[in-house]
Design goal:
The complex is a heterotrimer. By secondary structure, chain A is mainly α. Chain A is about 70% helix and about 0% strand. Chain A has eleven helices and two strands. Chain A has a two-stranded antiparallel ribbon with strand order 1-2. In chain A, strand 1 and strand 2 form a beta hairpin. In chain A, helix 1 packs across helix 9. In chain A, about 55% of the residues are buried. In chain B, helix 4 runs parallel beside helix 14 and helix 7 packs across helix 8. The longest helix of chain B has 20 residues. In chain B, helix 6 links the parallel strand 3 and strand 4. Chain B is about 45% helix and about 15% strand. By secondary structure, chain B is of the alpha/beta class. In chain B, the strands form four sheets. A five-stranded parallel beta sheet of chain B has the order 2-1-3-4-5, sandwiched between helices. Chain B is built from 17 helices and 15 strands. Chain C is mostly helical. Chain C is about 75% helix and about 0% strand. Chain C has 17 helices and two strands. Chain C has a two-stranded antiparallel ribbon. In chain C, helix 4 runs antiparallel to helix 5, helix 9 packs antiparallel against helix 12 and helix 10 packs across helix 12. The chains are: A mainly alpha, B alpha/beta, C mainly alpha. At the A-B interface, helix 1, helix 4, strand 2, helix 9 and helix 10 of A face helix 4, strand 7, helix 9, helix 10 and helix 11 of B.
């Protein structure tokens, strides 16, 4: 039996998984630490895609076209979006910490509507894409897009970086402690608001990174955020709210299951994901790797 | 002139450059004050004719409709310079966003008809929205010109005498692809294919039309695999590897809009089109313009109304000239804009033939009428009010005359509507539902 | 509306007896009766939409305001109700495309319980964020079923031709029909919220564990309320089809669920009539704003943002607070305490 196609399907599943992971990591981080389900996460991602596009185009026009211009464009976008995240946290999100869950949801939902229309206002109706001139390479008697290695590499690097940050740095350990008990962390004299602000900015920064990294692969279009956010929720729900490891594993499960469903049972690919989500929510609502918390 | 204020308002809708922040805040927040202001300044000599333009600027269709939405006011301005309909009724347009949602479309159609008192509605991108809008326009007896939505149901199952359709319907388009693909299959000795479709009614319908049509003319060409994806898919990688793994002779695609663009981009990066020919996917002029750098040359695309196929038509020439003057040297109209321009032309000629702007006389005048369009002289089919227009299939090719690729002229197959429209008029009569 | 604190003795008594909802509901009813007097048939249609979506939002508030659970899949009830009605409607139509009055009412009455039965089956096991996510997931699942099951539901094309019988094709007649149904439904809902069952729901909202210790069967109460809320949402959906003349899977989507949430939040979840006030504001505003700009999402998003930040109780919550503050400043009799206990369900 020729295993080539299965290896490739696995690879494309992993690439899909890393796309999902990059999208969901920030969402999971913010939810885990701050207990805020950020509906606007994908909208911030989309906004970042447009911003990266604009910086990339600007740099290409000024300094000459080169695929490498994407790197400073992504760096610039991440920096800008983290600042925007700090501002959002300071002026909007912070006011709802003491409020109940529905109001927080509605606040971030309002941001979805507002940011979505702002994108339309600034960039118009037309889609945005960039062309890096990527050429396919031969592999296992088929062709693959070399940029997929970039996606998988970035996903793994972000996962490793987050792991290092959460387990090996002092700040990361505080963040992890805050997942388990806000009041205890606070009682130890650590300023929770500052931690929250930084975590929110980091989450937005991860969305921005994903936006920039996907730009060569995916035209940025109005409404794309709404297509993506439900997938992100699925990953976070399966993995467990607040568990970065869970998000990573769930991304791989969803990506690979989806990819092989396409090969064997194309009509049921989406239903498979739905069924996993509903099963998890019913039998283990806190997710595969999450711990039952506050709710 | 009333309509020039419309132009300004419309530019605000779409053209970010012309919309200052202050205008925007004004137009969003000061609606109360605006309510009191007269909508259209200046008294007109004769009764104005109002067109409600119901197209999405939100949702999947928004990207496709951008040029129509900003192009229609220009065309109307020009019509008004000639005095408007019958040379005396100035045309005014009122724009509404249907958000690509049927219930919103129905509500906004009502608002246009009852509140803005429009005489005619141009609608819309999505077939599902068009079907919902039809219920409203039939009830209020308002002319409906459909110039993008192309489900055959609009003119058959859900027929109303008030709807005229100016784009090739889904059956005609599938029929055209069958004609082109069966020719290619014979030439290249193709035996197998894989289908990829958007999992919703239009995708299923298009796929069904293609497979049944192909089974009749080329029974030895077999479909080995069907893949369906959810609307709004953002990652086609796994679909593309699955298609390549099946090693088909060619693939058929029933996909449009943003998803088609994503698929083309990712398929190209993965070298899909080097391995698997993809004939007959929708590649409209706006796609040619937007994806000029990435569209694989030699790809066989399908268009509904490409301007470069009718450069000899005086109407098309004038239209191109006007839009380039208005929107810059690259302002070539796309398929959707051309078809909406034809809708305006149909209205003008219908009114002329009727000698009146009353809806009932216009629909009588348009019944079976032959009109001058961007695509030459075209006739409405008697039983369904479907305009007899062709579909265009050709190879994507870099033209020396344009900054973006077009279809290579000697590869272009133009499949006339009346050759492929199905079913027969007797069957259409049976399909038509009874209306109260 | 806030000026009745000092004058109008009977209004004041209504306020003391029923809280802010009482006087507002009376004033609203008077205004609603007069809607067809507005110039132009269009505003009658807007009025009908206000009523239908208001009923939908009020049914949502049974879950949110009274039981403390936010559902992002409530539109599934609305949509299934709309579809059940649309299918019956199509099946019962005479071949001429006309529908008789008895059949029309029959299709209105059968649709909603079907919706409640189908969706109520997916029982309430979770609370908080998990409830929100599960309701979203089920809502999307139902949307997907309706969207894909072409042979049964006609897929994304939807079902057209839901023209009501000739008597109710007239906008004004249909409006009054809707008004009668919605008012009747509202009265029934009010009775439910004021029954012992309704008060049990409030204890579930405030502290589920304590309620369980008191011997309340939490699951059964939540499920019953879920089915009741679903039935009323289904009723609203049943009215929507003939109103809009067509139904479509979009009615089941989470965007539609969001509308109920927005309306409830704008009007005030703490008052029984709050969601209806929210519907008046949301629907009227939308009708006006969309005439002038395509930036409706931005407009409503900004309004929601401002309400969450500065008026957490919604419009009625703010007014109620004002009145209370004014009254307790004037006199300190026991009536206020009673009013506070009766009328206000503040704090969801």
């Amino acid at each position: 039996m020729d295993i080539g196609p299965y290896v490739l399907q696995l690879f494309s599943g992993l690439s899909r998984a890393m796309v999902l992971f990059l999208l969901s990591a920030g969402l999971s981080l913010i939810f885990g630490v701050m207990n805020i389900l950020n509906f606007a996460h994908a909208t911030l991602w989309l906004l970042s895609g447009y911003v990266t596009f604009s910086i990339f185009t600007f740099l290409s026009e000024r300094l000459g076209a080169s695929p490498w211009m994407l790197l400073p464009a992504i760096a610039g976008t991440v920096a800008l979006m983290m600042l925007a995240g700090l501002a959002l946290e300071r002026f909007l999100i912070r006011r709802t910490y003491e409020r109940e869950l529905p109001e927080q949801l509605l606040l971030t939902f309002a941001l979805v509507l507002i940011l979505g229309d702002l994108i339309k206002l600034v960039w118009g109706l037309e889609n945005r894409r960039i062309n890096l001139g990527v050429q396919p390479i031969e592999m296992l008697d088929s062709l693959v897009n070399p940029y997929q290695f970039v996606i998988v590499g970035t996903g793994v690097a972000v996962a490793a970086g987050l792991w290092y940050f959460l387990h090996r740095t002092r700040f990361g350990k505080i963040v992890r402690a805050a997942v388990y008990s806000r009041s205890m962390v606070s009682a130890l004299g650590i300023p929770i608001p500052a931690i929250y602000a930084m975590v929110f900015a980091m989450g937005v920064g991860l969305a921005a990174l994903a936006g920039g990294v996907f730009l060569p692969l995916l035209p940025m279009a109005l409404g794309e955020d709404l297509d993506i956010i439900v997938q992100c929720f699925a990953v976070v729900v399966i993995g467990g709210f607040g568990s970065m490891l869970g998000t990573f594993v769930a991304s791989i499960v969803v990506g690979v299951v989806y990819s092989f469903s396409i090969l064997f049972w194309p009509d049921g690919a989406l239903a498979m994901i739905f069924l996993i989500v509903i099963a998890v929510l019913i039998w283990r609502p806190w997710g595969l790797f999450g711990t039952e918390l506050r709710y | 002139m009333a309509s020039s204020s419309d132009v300004r308002r419309w530019d605000g809708v779409i053209d970010r450059l012309k919309l200052s922040r202050r205008d925007f805040i004004f137009s969003t927040l000061a609606t109360g004050a605006l309510m009191l202001a007269p909508r259209f300044a200046g008294a007109q000599a004769a009764q104005p004719y109002k067109i409600g333009v119901l197209l999405p600027s939100t949702g999947t269709g928004a990207n496709y409709m951008a040029h129509c939405i900003k192009g229609l006011p220009v065309a109307v301005d020009e019509l008004n310079k000639r005095g408007g309909l019958l040379g005396k009724h100035p045309v005014q347009i009122v724009y509404r966003d249907d958000e690509t949602k049927p219930d919103v479309g129905a509500r906004e159609a009502r608002s246009l008809i009852l509140n803005d008192k429009v005489n005619c509605v141009f609608a819309t991108y999505s077939s599902a929205v068009a079907l919902a809008v039809q219920e409203i326009i039939h009830e209020h007896k308002v002319l409906h010109l459909a110039a993008t939505s192309n489900s055959s149901k609009i003119t058959q199952d859900n027929y109303t005498p008030y709807t005229y359709q100016l784009c090739p319907d889904s059956n005609m388009q599938s029929g055209a692809v069958v004609v082109a693909v069966s020719r290619m299959a014979q030439k290249n000795n193709w035996k197998s294919f894989v289908s990829l479709g958007q999992d919703y009614e239009w995708g299923r319908d298009t796929h069904r039309g293609f497979t049944t049509g192909l089974a009749k003319v080329a029974p030895n060409v077999k479909e080995t695999r069907q893949l369906w994806f959810k609307l709004g898919e953002t990652d086609f990688t796994s679909y593309i590897t699955a298609i390549m793994a099946a090693k088909p002779d060619f693939m058929f695609g029933a996909l449009a809009g943003k998803d088609a663009e994503t698929f083309m981009l990712q398929g190209n990066q993965m070298g899909l089109f080097k391995r698997v020919p993809f004939p007959g996917g929708l590649v409209a002029v706006n796609d040619l313009k937007a994806q000029r750098k990435t569209l694989p040359r030699g790809l066989i695309g399908l268009a509904r109304c490409p301007f470069f196929a009718h450069l000899n038509e005086p109407i098309m020439q004038a239209y191109i000239k006007r839009d380039r003057a208005a929107f810059g040297p690259e302002g070539y109209p796309d398929d959707w804009a051309c078809m909406h321009y034809d809708a305006l032309g149909a209205l003008e000629q219908g009114a002329k033939k009727a000698g009146s702007i009353a809806t009932e006389t216009i629909i009588k005048a348009l019944k079976g009428a032959t009109i001058d369009t961007c695509r030459g002289k075209r006739t409405f089919r008697d039983c369904s009010n479907q305009l007899d227009v062709p579909s265009y299939i050709g190879e994507v090719w870099d033209s020396p005359d344009y900054p973006f690729p077009i279809y290579k002229p000697d590869t272009m197959i133009v499949v006339e509507g009346h050759d492929v429209w199905t079913p027969t008029c007797e069957e259409v009569e049976k399909l038509k539902k009874k209306r109260a | 509306m806030s000026g009745e604190g000092n004058g109008a003795g009977w209004l004041s008594r209504v306020y003391a007896r029923y809280g802010i909802s009482g006087p507002v509901a009376l004033l609203l009813l008077v205004l609603l009766l007069g809607v067809p007097l507005l110039p132009g048939e269009y505003w009658t249609h807007v009025g009908t939409e206000v009523l239908i979506l208001g009923l939908f939002a009020m049914s949502f508030n049974l879950l949110y305001g009274y039981m403390g659970q936010i559902s992002f899949g409530h539109a599934a009830f609305f949509g299934v109700g709309a579809y059940a009605t649309a299918m019956l409607f199509t099946a019962l139509k005479t071949p001429a495309g006309q529908i008789g009055i008895p059949q029309f009412f029959l299709s209105l009455l059968i649709g909603p319980p079907v919706a409640a039965l189908i969706v109520g089956f997916f029982c309430v096991r979770l609370t908080g964020i998990y409830f929100a996510m599960l309701s979203l997931a089920f809502g999307e699942l139902l949307f997907y079923i309706v969207f894909s099951w072409y042979s049964f539901t006609k897929g994304d094309d939807g079902i057209q031709g839901l023209l009501p019988p000739p008597l109710f094709q007239d906008a004004v007649n249909f409006y009054y029909l809707t008004l009668v149904i919605v008012v009747a439904a509202a009265v029934v809902m009010w009775r439910i919220t004021e029954s012992p069952f309704g008060y049990t729901l409030r204890t579930l909202r405030d502290n589920q564990r304590r309620a369980a210790f008191l011997g309340t069967n939490v699951m059964v109460h939540m499920l019953a309320n879920f089915v009741i809320a679903g039935a009323f949402a289904g009723l609203a959906g049943a009215l929507w089809g003939p109103f809009s003349r067509s139904v479509n899977p979009v009615l089941l989507g989470w965007g539609e669920s969001g509308i109920a949430v927005f309306m409830t939040l704008i009007g005030g979840a703490g008052a029984f009539i709050g969601p209806m006030i929210g519907s008046v504001i949301y629907t009227m505003l939308q009708a006006m704003v969309k005439m002038y700009t395509v930036y409706w999402p931005l407009t409503i998003g900004t309004i929601i943002l401002l309400i969450v930040l500065f008026a957490p109780g919604g419009i009625l919550g703010v007014i109620d607070k004002r009145i209370r503050a004014g009254r307790s400043g004037q006199s300190a009799n026991g009536g206020d305490a009673e009013a506070a206990a009766r009328g206000a369900e503040p704090r969801p």
